[in-house]
């Protein structure tokens, strides 16, 4: 079994970079390995998540062998939430991170899911209640690149496996910086490049052959689950993402690789 693209993982310094556009050309942005007109990105992303929403959590558990639950618990622990904290879960979807955050902020705190996709949030609301925690989560539909909350209004902001789907990732991070109080913390949990070469080779085979096959059989869309590994491979590497967060104005930026680097948790603080 061979991988068609021998240079699947871009070299450091190229991931997340916008394509070059001449002045007389339409602005293009990444959508997996494709370059599409910027005006189409939001619509395509919405259609993608509408396709996978009903089985999103089931497929996450199946494809990660359940490890994503450990990643999310670790990410919330690294955010060091306290009782009474106000937390915004950007691109929060079906709410796994938000449920964990609710436990940490206690009854005196507040957790809000902010996502552009209504269907994903509806799936999250309909999930079986976990000790009443989902009833304490507020769901708001909105664009992560233009968050409808005032400056300095949250103690923490988090995004799990969602920032790479934005048209302008930097705007999403800038908005999270804006709505945080001074001293507030951000947490970003995302997929990344495995560190061990042999493991990375096996991961590539799994990503580009097994995952799309299961997507076709179980969800009815091979393309939706081909977009997943493609979007991961054009996402910034940990050092690049750390540099972006510093450029935006965050400090105390750090990250932790999980499961040989398949996932990475970044945390940072607003001055």
Could you write a compact summary of the structure shown?
With 271 residues, the chain is an alpha/beta fold. It has helices at residues 41-52, 56-63, 67-79, 96-105, 118-126, 169-179, 197-218, 222-233, 238-248, and strands at residues 28-31, 34-37, 86-90, 110-115, 137-141, 154-160, 180-191, 250-258, 263-270.
Can you put this structure into words, describing what you see?
The chain has one domain: 3-Layer(aba) Sandwich (Rossmann fold), CATH 3.40.50.150. The chain is globular, with a radius of gyration of 18 Å. It is α/β, with parallel strands linked by helices. Strand 3, helix 4 and strand 4 form a beta-alpha-beta unit. The strands form two sheets. The protein has a seven-stranded mixed beta sheet with strand order 5-4-3-6-7-9-8, with helices on both faces. It has a two-stranded antiparallel ribbon with strand order 1-2. The chain is built from nine helices and nine strands. The longest helix has 22 residues. Helix content is 40%, strand content 22%.
């Amino acid at each position: 079994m061979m991988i068609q693209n021998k240079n699947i993982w871009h070299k450091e310094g190229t991931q997340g970079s916008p394509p070059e556009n001449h002045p007389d050309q339409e602005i293009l942005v990444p959508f997996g390995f494709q370059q599409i007109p910027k005006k189409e990105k939001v619509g395509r992303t919405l259609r993608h998540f509408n396709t996978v929403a009903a089985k999103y959590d089931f497929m996450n558990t199946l494809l990660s062998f359940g490890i994503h639950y450990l990643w999310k618990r670790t990410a919330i622990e690294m955010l060091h939430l306290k009782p009474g904290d106000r937390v915004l879960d950007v691109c929060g979807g079906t709410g796994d991170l938000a449920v964990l955050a609710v436990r940490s902020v206690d009854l005196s705190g507040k957790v809000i899911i902010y996502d552009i996709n209504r269907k994903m949030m509806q799936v999250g609301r309909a999930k079986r209640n976990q000790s009443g925690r989902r009833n304490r989560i507020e769901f708001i539909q909105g664009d992560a690149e233009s968050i409808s909350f005032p400056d300095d209004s949250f103690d923490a902001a988090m995004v799990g496996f969602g920032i790479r789907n934005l048209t302008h990732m930097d705007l999403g991070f800038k908005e999270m910086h804006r709505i945080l109080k001074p001293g507030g913390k951000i947490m970003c949990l995302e997929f990344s490049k495995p560190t061990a070469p042999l493991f990375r080779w096996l991961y590539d085979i799994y990503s580009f052959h097994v995952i799309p096959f299961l997507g076709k059989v179980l969800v009815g869309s091979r393309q939706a689950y081909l977009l997943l590994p493609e979007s991961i491979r054009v996402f910034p590497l940990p050092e690049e993402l750390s540099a972006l967060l510093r450029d935006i104005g965050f400090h105390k930026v750090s990250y932790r690789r999980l499961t040989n680097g398949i996932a990475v948790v970044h945390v940072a603080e607003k001055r």
